[in-house]
From TrEMBL:
Record GO biological process: DNA recombination; DNA repair
Tagged with keyword Transport: no
A Pfam family per the record: RuvA_C
Record has Nucleotide-binding as a keyword: yes
UniProt name for this protein: Holliday junction branch migration complex subunit RuvA
Cited HAMAP family: DNA_HJ_migration_RuvA
UniProt organism field: Butyricicoccus pullicaecorum 1.2
Family per record: Belongs to the RuvA family.
GO MF annotations, alphabetized: ATP binding; four-way junction DNA binding; four-way junction helicase activity
Role this protein plays: The RuvA-RuvB-RuvC complex processes Holliday junction (HJ) DNA during genetic recombination and DNA repair, while the RuvA-RuvB complex plays an important role in the rescue of blocked DNA replication forks via replication fork reversal (RFR). RuvA specifically binds to HJ cruciform DNA, conferring on it an open structure. The RuvB hexamer acts as an ATP-dependent pump, pulling dsDNA into and through the RuvAB complex. HJ branch migration allows RuvC to scan DNA until it finds its consensus sequence, where it cleaves and resolves the cruciform DNA.
Chief location bin: cytoplasm
Entry-linked InterPro entries: DNA_helicase_Holl-junc_RuvA_I, Hlx-hairpin-Hlx_DNA-bd_motif, NA-bd_OB-fold, RuvA, RuvA_2-like, RuvA_C, RuvA_C_sf
Length: 206
């Protein structure tokens, strides 16, 4: 229904940002990651998700499409609702969350209030499994060969492979991830997360 809302930030509190669009205030539930990027009185654009249930009609908004993508992935996991998803995104921005899923690092997710070890493990397992199936399907349809993900608790692949896989978790095609890496001097980036961040900037620039 809404792709994004754009206007002036009218009000901000712990998990809510109100955007004034031509005199109409849109109250968007959001993460601390997004809250840290907006300021009252300044223009902002939030990419939105309308969460509708029998007695619920809530709007969620995020500073970028990667965080919105992560939010939608998280609420697609059994037992994870919008409140839990926001809690996770508040401690793990998109680059860190995607990397945690790839490497099986559920400990990071348990730093979010209300997220215990069992639900953190479920998130990692379900999203890793979903990604693996999508990669396999892409390969069958003539796409690039699927990346081999590290086994849970096993040895990690190198930082570049982790970064590519993490970008795919965020919704990018493998070809887009590879294009974002083109021309980068990877020796300048000490870990996968720093590679992911620079790739996201390049992808945002088109």
């Amino acid at each position: 229904m809404f792709y994004y809302v754009e206007g002036t930030v009218a009000f901000v509190e712990q998990s809510l940002c109100v955007i004034d669009c031509a005199g109409v205030g849109y109250a968007c539930h959001t993460s601390q990651n997004t809250i840290s990027q907006v300021k009252v009185g300044k223009p902002a654009r939030l990419y939105t998700y309308l969460y509708v249930r029998e007695d619920i009609f809530d709007l969620y908004g995020f500073a970028d499409q990667e965080e919105l993508s992560c939010f939608k992935m998280l609420i697609g996991v059994s037992g994870v609702g919008p409140k839990a998803a926001l809690a996770i995104l508040s401690v793990a921005p998109p680059s860190r969350l995607a990397l945690s899923i790839i490497t099986g690092e559920e400990k990071l997710l348990t730093q979010a209030p209300g997220i215990g070890k069992k639900i953190a493990q479920r998130i990692v397992l379900e999203l890793r499994d979903k990604m693996s199936k999508e990669q396999l399907e892409g390969a069958k349809n003539g796409g690039s060969a699927a990346l081999e993900l590290p086994a849970q608790g096993g040895a990690s692949v190198n930082h570049t492979q982790e970064a590519i896989a993490a970008l795919m978790v965020l919704g990018y095609a493998q070809s887009e991830a590879l294009a974002a890496l083109e021309g980068l001097d990877l020796s300048e980036y000490p870990d996968a997360e720093s590679i992911i961040r620079v790739c996201l900037k390049r992808l945002a620039m088109g």
